[in-house]
# Entry
Amino acid sequence: MKRFQIYLFFMLLVAIFYFVLPINTKVLVNENNSGNKEVFEIDVPELGKNCSEVDMMKWKGHLRYTSGPFYDLNVLNRTIDINSLIEKKESITSLKINSLKLNELPKELFLFTNLEALDISDNPFTDLKNVIDKLSQFPKLELLAMNHCGIQKLPDNLSQLKHLKGIALNQNIGLFDVNSIAQLKELKYLDLSANKRLMDLPDSIGNLKCLEQIVLGGSGFTRLREELSNCSNLKEITANACNIKDLPIKIGNLKNLKKLNLGANRIEIIPESLGELEQLVNLSLGTNDISSLPSSISKLKNLYSMSLELNRFKTFPTEVLDLEGLRYLNLHNNYIEEIPVEVADLPNLRRVYLDHEIITNENIESLRQRNPNLQVERRDALRLVPSEPKRKN
# Structure
């Protein structure tokens, strides 16, 4: 009986480890009453690997996090003479040694063993693999900026920076291969903006389960690949001013997404699943080729700001009338001839931008009478274009 009770207790322990806690395989050895050893392979918790344990992004308000993860590093003064800081090296956690024409990392840098954030941007490193090898000597390094370094391909040894939570690689105009980025399992922030030769994300991008923000604006992307919808912790996607036409069909899997900026692309169709993004507060779809919205858009009750300007809408998208949380709405530079007065009934709407040519004064006045607190303004999205402004055909 006693042996049976021990067995039940042991199986209960296994069940707790297996079904309740994060897992990692371990081997246990149990000695039975006969003195024989029994070997069990079970799954036990792997602590410290939960992405939500460190809230790096510090979200605030409706539109964005308090400051980008690189904010403090960006405003830090550049260090020209690193030797002048050696006396207080133990207390320094951030360094900015950008734009110093470095071909390799200075040996004095490795005296700063407590570095958590490092900016080495705008330096023409000759051996990037060697740079990564040396950076792996910093056990606390979490943020790394390597903007405008002439990088063409990320080296395969990137996995050595295993605790990296943020990496900025913008304006590496020759960059065409970032396949090794998926090795950074703890990555939360990824900036690949302004890289015109970079046409696609790797299919392994979905392995970045901790990723919260990805910035792709001004790069050469023609799609947001389907695997991105597996990055379930994403809070922001900024992918404006690319050549994107295709979006993930399962984009609705990104249940934590708050901001989606897809302005200035070539998008024609919005996936139906986008309506499943219940946390979305900012949706930018301006300057595309969209003529209609999926019916699911009406479910975005938390949406705060919506941009649909400079598209191909010929009639007002009635799905908008169900967006009770909407505060700002941009509709200008479309072919919408009339705005329904029910728009003014949206309880939180404070400002709406309408077309500067097509919408009549009578239509605008009817909206203002319906809701005197609503600011209705005419706007032209092309007014700052140097050449003669033209509408899309």
About this structure: The first strand starts at residue 24 and ends at 31.
